[in-house]
User: What shape does this take?
Amino acid sequence: MRTSSNRMSSPSFGTSHGIQNGAGIFRVSPEVKTPSPIHSLAAVLMIVAVWFGSGLFTQLNADDEVVKAAKGWTSFRNGHQNLGIADGPLSEELELKWEYTTPDGTASTPVIADGRTYVGTLSGDIHCFELSSGELVWTYRSVDEVAENDIPPGFNAALALNSTTVFGGDDFGTFRAVDRKTGARKWTLETEAEIVGGAQVVGDNVIFGSHDGLLYCLNAETGEKVWTAEAQGPVNATPTIHDGETFTTGCDQPVLRVFDIQQGKSVSEVPIDALLIASAAAKDGILYFGTDGGSVHALPIVDGVEGWTFSIPGREQQMHSSPVVTEDVVLIGSRDKHVHCIDRKTGELKWSFATRGRVDSSPVIAGDKIYFGSADRNIYGVNLSDGKEVWKFPAKQSITGSPAIASGYLVIGTDSSNGRILCFGSPSSE
Assistant: This one.
C-alpha cells in the first residue's frame, strides 16, 4: 500500500496581536510535497481561537490547572486533550452484561463516573444506569410532552460531567444541565441552532459551540454567560484543551479565528484550505486531526516541534472519526472502511484494519487494545501493536458513536431504530 507522509518544520510565531499576514495557511492536499509553514498561536498570551473547518484555541493563565486526569470517562474523549485513552485495561474476554433498547438509538458517546453511566439518545432522553447491573436509575426528557406528529429534541452531542452535573446540548439548540443524582433539570440555555459537539468543563465554567455560529462559555453551576464569541460559522466539535489551550472544530469555513478569552473578542484569523468534521486531539505541542479530504495532520502549536501530513493516495475518504493519540501512535477511523495506525513521530503508516463499513466511531485505547464500532454493525477489539483482531461483537445495528471505557466496562450505543445501549465486561466466571 502506497502512503504519503509529508514532514513539517517547527512553526514560526505570529505577533502579540495575531498571526502575521500571509502566514498560517495549512496545505492539506496529498499532492503537496513540500508543506507550507504553519504559524503557531502560542505568542498570544490570553486568547480563544475557533477553527471553523478547524478548531477553538483557548489560552488560560499559566497557573490554571485545566488539564486534569479524568476519573471514569467524563467527556467525549475522556479528558481535556481528547486523547481517547481509558484509565485501565479491559478483560481479555468480554461478554455482554446488559442492554437497553431506545426507540431511535444513540449516536453519541456515553460518559461514566462513580459506578454509573449516562447516555443521551436520539429520542430525546438522557438515561442514567447502574454500570454493573444496567438498572435504570433515572431518565431526563428533553420535553415533557410531544405533540402529535412532532418529535422531541434529541441528543447527538456527547455528554460531559463534573462532580454534580450532566451537561449536554440537543439538536434543537438547547444546552442543558441535569443533576447527576436525581435527573432533575438544573438550568437550560437556548441557542439559535443545533448543538452537535460535546462540552468541556474547565474549572467553574463549561465551554461548547453551537451551529448558530457562537462559542459559549457559561458558569457551570448557574448557566449564566461568562462570554460568547462570534465564530461566523457552525461549531461542530468538542473543545480540546492542551496546556491551557483549547481547540474545537467547525464544519463549513476553513478559517482559524482567534478570540480574547477574557471577553471573547476577536483577535485574529487565519485561512486554512481544509475542513474538519470531527474533534482534534492535542499532545506535546501538536494538534492531531483528520479532514474531509481524507488526510491526517500533526499540526505544531508550539515552537520547536515538527508536524506531518498523512494520506493514502487513491483512498482519500472523509474522516468523521476523532483520533486517539499515545506516546507512539495516532489511530483514526475513516470512511474508507479502515482504522489506520500512524507513527506519531514520523507520520508513516504502521498498519490498517479493514471493516465492511465506514468507521465514524472514534477508536478508544484500553491497555494494549483499541475498541471501536463500524457501520458494518460490529464492535471490534484490536491489538494496538499489530492491528490483529482479538474480539468482535455482532451488534447487528450500525454504530456511529464511540465507546466509553471505565472500571472494567465498555459502554456503546447503536444508532438504528430500536437501537440499543450495550454494556460489556468480564465474563461471569472471572
